[in-house]
Specification:
This protein is an all-alpha fold. The protein contains eleven helices and no strands. Helix 2 crosses helix 4 (42-53), helix 7 (80-92) packs parallel to helix 9 (119-133) and helix 8 packs across helix 9. The radius of gyration is 17 Å and the shape is globular. The model has no long low-confidence stretch (mean pLDDT 96).
């Protein structure tokens, strides 16, 4: 049985895979996420979210009802690893036009350009901003202008790669 204590002791990929396999065996992705992702202990929340990232997209579909809760977690947490992992889960979930939130779009635009942010967060935010802007051509043009204006000397290769894919039309 997974507990706060067992999640605190996760240290390696093999530990995370064990967490994932236990959640999978019980098919309780939603309950597991609800129980642990909001923990005030960074290790517990981080390791729970890390375990969820190992799930297939079909398995993660169980988290679809939590889309906005995951978005809120990403925007509110003070832990960069929890932010990155929750954004990773959001990226893998379905997002429809009615799911578009201007506060989340603003968050993504701000964090994709923040040179102090982790490259993983910058990259995912850029992808999510792109996804949200696909619903509105006028927003897409604004996003592309923003991305073009970013001084790439200050960004890691992961961010440059996502930027180039968006500008070349290769990101879908």
């Amino acid at each position: 049985m997974i507990t706060n204590e067992s999640l605190k002791s996760v240290r390696h990929e093999s530990d995370v895979m064990a967490v994932y396999h236990e959640v999978k065996s019980k098919n309780n992705f939603l309950e597991f996420a609800q129980q642990f992702m909001h923990s005030e202990e960074e290790k517990v929340a981080r390791n729970a979210l890390w375990g969820l990232t190992k799930a297939s997209n079909d398995e993660l579909a169980a988290l679809q009802p939590m889309l906005h809760e995951l978005i809120d977690l990403a925007m509110m947490t003070g832990f960069s690893s929890v932010r990155r992992l929750s954004l990773t889960l959001v990226e893998r979930l379905r997002m429809e036009e009615e799911d578009l939130r201007t506060d989340f779009l603003d968050f993504c635009l701000e964090h994709m350009a923040d040179v102090e942010e982790l490259p993983g967060v910058q990259s995912i935010c850029m992808k999510l901003a792109f996804r949200m802007c696909t619903f509105y051509p006028e927003l897409m043009e604004e996003l592309k202008r923003t991305i073009e204006a970013m001084e790439m000397d200050y960004y890691k290769p992961a961010v440059r790669c996502v930027r180039n894919k968006i500008l070349s039309g290769k990101l879908k």
